[in-house]
Amino acid sequence: MRDNEDRLWSERYREAAETWVQLDAAANLLEECKSSVLAQRMSALGDIPVSHAERTVKASDEWHDYVTKMVKAREAANLAKVKTDFIKMRAMEEQSANANKRAEMRLG
């Protein structure tokens, strides 16, 4: 197997982008399900006023863990996106440097 540095930038970008897509999907799922998870947990408390059920659920360790997991998932997705952007920028820098070298060789 070739060293990471020997791989084409396009291949590095593809891998980083696939990772970002997976992490972004996981974060989106947690964010989109937040309301339904809250409703399910409130419903499980039985026939009590909505305000009491919401307060009880949101004060629970279980809810804190859910929100923490959701935020950490978004953080991981954001970091993966930054890595993807870095690879893209690095490839552009290398392409520009190579173009400059070719221009210098034509002038020299």
What does this structure look like?
The longest helix is centred in the C-terminal third of the chain and has 47 residues, at 61-107. The protein is mainly alpha-helical and 108 residues long. The chain has helices at residues 9-44, 50-58, 61-107. The protein has one domain. 85% of the residues lie in helices and 0% in strands. The mean pLDDT is 93.
SS-based class: mainly alpha
Radius of gyration: 24 Å
The general outline is rod-shaped
Q: Would you tell me the overall average pLDDT?
A: 93
Reported for the largest beta sheet, the result is: none
Query: Roughly how many Å apart are the termini?
Result: 38 Å
Proportion of beta-strand residues:
under 5%
Tally of separate helices = 3
Strand and helix order: HHH
How many distinct domains? 1
Number of E strands: 0
List the helices and strands and how they pair.
Elements: H1 9-44, H2 50-58, H3 61-107
Helix pairs in contact: 1-2, 1-3
Key features?
mainly alpha, 0% strand, 108 residues, 3 helices
Short description:
The protein is mainly alpha-helical. It has three helices and no strands.
